[in-house]
Amino acid sequence: MKNSCTLYLLTLLVCLSASPAQAQATQHTFTTDTRLATLSRSFFAWRRGQQPAAGDDIPRVERPDGWAPDWSPEALETYRADYQKFIQSVDALRVEDWPVGQQVDARLLRAAIQRVHWELDILRSPHRNPLFYVQQTLGSVFELLLIASPVDEARLENIILRLERIPQTLSHARKNLDEAVGPFADATISVLTDIDERLDAVERALEAQVPPNLERRLHRSVSKANKALERYRRWLQSEREGMRESFAIGPEAYTWFLTQVALVPHTPAELLAQGRQEWSRAVAWDVLEQNRNRDVGKLPLFESIEKQVAAADMHEKSIRAFLESRDLMTVPDWLQHYRSCPMPAHLAPISFLGVADDLTSETRLDEDACRYIVEPDPGLSYFQLSAAKDPRPLILHEGVPGHYYQMALSWAQPNPIRRRYIDSSVNEGIAYYVEEMLLQAGLFDFSPKTREIIYSYARLRALRVEVDIQLAVGDFSIAEAAEYLARTVPMDSETALEEAVFFAFNPGQAITYQVGKLQIIRFLADARLDQGGDFSLRAFHDYLMENGNVPIALQRWEYLDRKDDVHRLDALGGAAATVPQ
């Protein structure tokens, strides 16, 4: 890490000596000899190795071959020093006279850099959250097991390398966790209760794919990982009594995140009001929909996983055709398909670690995406159960035209900065928006009970705003948040608790669905008003999807020349700014 950052600084010094005119570029072009391009390449290359593993599918990055996590105390100090160099470098750029597109790119890069500070020194996950190290150990293995293509020898080598790193990483965890939060430790202890049986099951499932030269090494790595994870669990139990109970970051830190990382131009109080209003709307429309369908029978479960997979494939193709026939957006010919795939035996034992899907990547755009499913059963969790009745709502959100569709288009776009994850508010906002957009466009006109699923999703997304903010400011405990979700959505208790734990140590994530969708609706309304008869819904959606990693405040600025949200971001973030009237 030190060497890569030093190389970056030498390159940057050369670029900073260039004239400001060399940094100019037209919208959607990106010349590699600009200072911004050099800085962004250096940062995102560094981030591929440094970025923490996470259970969410949107932020996932492709790691370099031979990569293994490093969360030693020394590495943490290096990461902090590197962050300071990156943020100073981006702040040294004078972008005021650049074209709007380049100014947008500079703000994107700065937000991505600020996320490092958010993770290390505001959330302080390596110091506060014992579950963080489950993600950096098992979660890093999970990332490789998710890939839908057959497990080859090269991938097995990387899986083993990450398993071999587990004892060392957990040793570092015991040194770093000097501010450990008790409720996060409780969740970690629970997760690790039977982890040895789960990892052994993963090993057995991989046996048929392991060449003889790797069999012994895989077995040793799993055995040592199991022992290290059990030691870690026992250590957490022994230290639990002295841990702090409070996990809230407080309103000031939350506001910093909104303005510096997510680029959402609202206060927490405004977001709470939005969430509550949307909750009332979702409940009202849900009640009306249920009343309308009072004589319609319930949706049956698919009879088998094979029938669910076949139906999902058929529906995915029909959704693509619907998007084109209704002039909603352009579906590229090169885009592969989003499929429902049976859960692999080597993934199933640790599928609890995150979203069980493979959305492909920037280098795998020629592969289909997969969402892993299990046999239809009445006891399935909230989202899996909805898909076992009708896969379309989840196809819209996770696949086409949701996450897979948007991310594939963003990965394929010419500007490298805009291929990168910045914050989930735009990605999840798009995925939620397309659910309701296609409901209004008529996709479910002949599926009354599926419309009820869409409204149930809407209730959950609105409630997540309340849960996220109240957890972050300290007004909800994890148990209270889980009970609130289970009772009010309603949803199963297991999913509710999983959501509450995830949102407690990932503040700012649960708001993204609702907040992002509302920003997009406002963006759409303003585009229609500004462009009048020249407005094209297809063109609007095509721009939105290609730039689906760009926060909506910046999209409005570039697409409509409306800078009002950017001015408000500056004002809320502490910059001297006057919002034009």
The first-to-last residue Cα distance is 47 Å
Q: What number of domains? A: 3
Average predicted confidence as pLDDT: 93
Query: What's the β-strand tally?
Result: 3
Q: Percent range for helical residues? A: 55-70%
List SSEs in N-to-C order: HHHHHHHHHHHHHEEEHHHHHHHHHHH
Q: What are the segments in which pLDDT stays under 50 over at least 5 consecutive residues? A: 1-33, 576-581
What gross morphology would you assign?
Answer: globular
Taking all Cα atoms into account, the compactness measure Rg is: 24 Å
Number of helices: 24
- Structural class, from helix and strand content? mainly alpha
Percentage of β-strand residues: under 5%
Largest sheet geometry:
3 strands, mixed
Q: What order do the strands of the largest sheet run in, or round the barrel if closed?
A: 1-3-2
Protein model, in words:
The protein contains 24 helices and 3 strands. It is globular, with a radius of gyration of 24 Å. The protein has helices at residues 2-16, 35-50, 73-92, 100-122, 125-128, 130-145, 153-176, 182-191, 195-206, 212-239, 251-262, 268-292, 305-325, 382-387, 392-399, 403-411, 424-441, 448-473, 478-488, 493-505, 512-531, 537-546, 552-560, 564-572; strands at 338-342, 357-358, 369-373. The longest helix is centred in the middle third of the chain and has 28 residues, at 212-239. It has 3 domains: 2-18 and 33-123, no CATH class; 128-242, no CATH class; 254-512, no CATH class. 46% of the residues are buried.
